[in-house]
Design brief:
This protein is mainly β. It contains no helices and 7 strands. It has a 7-stranded antiparallel β-sheet, with no helix packed on it. β4 (42-48) and β5 (53-59) form a beta hairpin. It is globular, with a radius of gyration of 13 Å. The model has no long low-confidence stretch (mean pLDDT 88).
């Protein structure tokens, strides 16, 4: 996962790389959304493109460098382990 602010689009965008071991299976450019959960210390983060969506429940107080998420395509849905890359 890599994300950055795109001033032209005025939003967070990024890239999701699906790896198996050291092999790159797929790389997708995405828009990044964060949705706070009412009266909670958590929020849902979503990396979205028309072909791929990754959702994760995150905590405001904990590090979000490594986390579990749900990876979804039109034909597949599975739990994945994610790590954010440094900019």
């Amino acid at each position: 996962m890599k994300e950055y602010f795109d001033a032209k689009m005025n939003m967070e965008v990024g890239k999701v790389d699906l790896l198996k071991g050291a092999d790159l299976l797929e790389s997708t450019y995405v828009k990044v959304y964060s949705v706070p959960i009412y009266e909670s210390e958590t929020y849902v983060k979503m990396w979205y493109s028309p072909s791929v969506r990754v959702d994760a429940q995150m905590s405001w107080s904990e590090s979000s460098r490594e986390f579990l998420a749900t990876y979804s395509t039109s034909k597949l849905k599975r739990q994945i382990y994610c790590a954010k890359q440094a900019n």
